């Protein structure tokens, strides 16, 4: 029995020795770091060091299990890959290339700017903010007071919102379940969690010209806001000015009639 136990312990020791040690790397010196190599485990930028403004440029050839931007850091994803990416506090993440293989989570008051690359799924928590003008993203999720603006890119998954969050979509020719909508707000039907909301479908064309064709669930006080493209918005504004001008002309005519006759009619 002792012999078996000894062999088992020896096997465990050998296994642990054979496994590579996971490295925890931190950048928090206020400088700019170009990463083009692989990192086994987690990378933290400005963790618990506010106002350092450390910058990490993630380049072709770079990879890490996780990349986490904290405080006032800045991360630029230009290439390479990351298992999952998180932004916290007042950090900023700009993504123009590369791939996020798992998920991108934004927290606090962090800012995301996405113009390219691939992201498996994006979740905006708390009061974080995301602007999407390009790239390819799976599911798009917003909670608490998170806000996501979609100007372009490809969204291949579902939209899920709850809390008081917003997803604003800029474009034209919007329709919900095949019914033309134009522009306006989409809100929850039952006011509960999105899992208990009916499945609805939104189509349209984004400001970038790419098609939008996605299922969505809205819970609580969250909303999807459909905003017309600038040309449509300009036409709506001109129409409003014409109506106001006609209204002023009508009131001027009524005022003249009142001055002449002493009564409205």
Short overview:
The chain is α/β, with parallel strands linked by helices. It is built from two helices and 21 strands. It folds into two domains: 19-230; 231-265.
How would you describe this structure in keywords?
alpha/beta, 2 domains, 21-stranded mixed sheet, 21 strands
Query: Kindly state the mean pLDDT as a whole number?
Result: 85
Which value, in Å, is the CA radius of gyration? 26 Å
Q: What are the segments in which pLDDT stays under 50 over at least 5 consecutive residues?
A: 4-22, 231-243, 253-265
Estimate the strand proportion.
over 45%
Q: Tell me the overall shape.
A: elongated
Q: Sheet with the most strands?
A: 21 strands, mixed
Structural class: alpha/beta
Q: Tell me the number of strands.
A: 21
Instruction: Quote the distance from N terminus to C terminus.
Output: 112 Å
Helix proportion of residues, in percent?
10-25%
Number of domains: 2
Strand and helix order: HEEEEEEEEEEEEEEEEEEEEEH
Number of helix segments? 2
Q: How would you characterize the overall build of this protein?
A:
It is a single chain. This protein has 265 residues and is α/β, with parallel strands linked by helices. It has 2 domains: 19-230; 231-265. The chain is 18% helix and 46% strand. It has 2 helices and 21 strands. The chain has helices at residues 2-18, 230-261; strands at residues 25-27, 32-35, 38-45, 55-58, 63-69, 74-77, 81-87, 92-95, 99-100, 104-106, 111-124, 129-142, 147-150, 154-155, 159-161, 166-176, 179-182, 184-187, 200-206, 211-218, 223-228. The protein has a 21-stranded mixed sheet that branches. A hairpin with a 4-residue loop joins strand 19 and strand 20. The longest helix has 32 residues, at 230-261. The chain is elongated and about 55 Å long. The model is unreliable at 4-22, 231-243 and 253-265 (pLDDT under 50).
């Amino acid at each position: 029995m002792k012999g078996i136990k000894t062999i088992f312990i020896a096997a465990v020791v050998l296994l642990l020795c054979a496994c590579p040690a996971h490295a925890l790397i931190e950048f928090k010196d206020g400088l700019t770091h170009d990463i083009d190599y692989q990192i086994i485990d987690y990378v933290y930028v400005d963790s618990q060091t506010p106002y350092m403004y450390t910058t990490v440029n993630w380049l072709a050839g770079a990879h890490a299990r996780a990349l986490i931007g904290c405080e006032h850091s800045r991360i630029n994803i230009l290439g390479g890959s990351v298992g999952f990416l998180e932004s916290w506090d007042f950090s900023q993440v700009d993504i123009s290339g590369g791939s996020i293989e798992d998920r991108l989570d934004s927290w606090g008051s962090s800012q995301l700017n996405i113009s390219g690359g691939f992201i498996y799924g994006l979740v905006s928590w708390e009061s974080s903010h995301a602007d999407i003008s390009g790239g390819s993203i799976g599911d798009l999720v917003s909670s608490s007071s998170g806000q996501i603006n979609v100007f372009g890119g490809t969204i291949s998954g579902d939209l899920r919102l709850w809390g008081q969050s917003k997803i604003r979509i800029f474009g034209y020719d919007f329709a919900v379940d095949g019914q033309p909508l134009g522009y306006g707000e989409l809100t929850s039907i039952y006011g509960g969690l999105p899992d208990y909301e009916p499945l609805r479908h939104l189509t349209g064309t984004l400001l970038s010209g790419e098609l939008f064709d996605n299922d969505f669930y809205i819970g609580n006080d969250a909303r999807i806001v459909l905003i017309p493209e600038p040309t449509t918005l300009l036409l709506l504004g001109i129409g409003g000015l014409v109506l106001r001008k006609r209204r002023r002309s009508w009131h001027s005519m009524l005022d003249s009639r009142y001055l002449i006759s002493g009564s409205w009619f």
